[in-house]
Amino acid sequence: MEYFSIPGAICKNGHRVIGSNPSEIQQANFCQSCGAKVFNRCDGCNKEIMVKGTYQISDRDSDEYLPLPAFCENCGKAYPWTSLALEAAKNLIDSANELDNIEKVYLANNLNNIISDNPNTELVANNIRSLLSKAGNEFTSAFRNITVNIISEIAKRAIFS
Ligand SMILES: [Zn+2]
Ligand SMILES: [Zn+2]
How many domains does one find in the chain? Predict the structure, then answer.
C-alpha cells in the first residue's frame, strides 16, 4: 500500500480531473465528461481540495483508487458533489415503492453515517443493506451509482459486497 495526497480538481457531478501535471489539473474550469464546473478549492473557505488515500501499486493504471473527498478538511462544509449526491439519493429514496415511510426516513436520515466513518457506520451500513434487498435490484443499483463515490470504504464493503 502506498499513501498519497494530491491536489484534486473535481466537477460538481463528482468526475475527477486526472492528469500527471498538477498545474494543468488546477487549471481545468469545466469537466470533459459532463461540462459541469470544476472545483479545485472549497467553495466555503477557499482551501485547496486534496485527494488522499492509499493504493496498491497494481491500482496505478486505474483512477478507481482515487476516492472523492466528501467534506472540506478545513471548514467541514460538504463539497458540491457530496451535496448533489445526497440530494439525488434522497429523491431516489422517496421513489422507492417497496419501502414504507419509516424505512425511507431511516435511509434518508442515515446517509451521513455512511459517508464518513463513525462508531455507527457499520451497524447503519448493515441495516441499509437489508433495506436495499427489500427495495429490489433496480433500486439497489441506482442507489449504488449515486453513492458509491462518496461513501466510506467500510460502508461500501458492508453494503455492496
Ligand atoms: Zn463531470
Ligand atoms: Zn472549506
Answer: 2
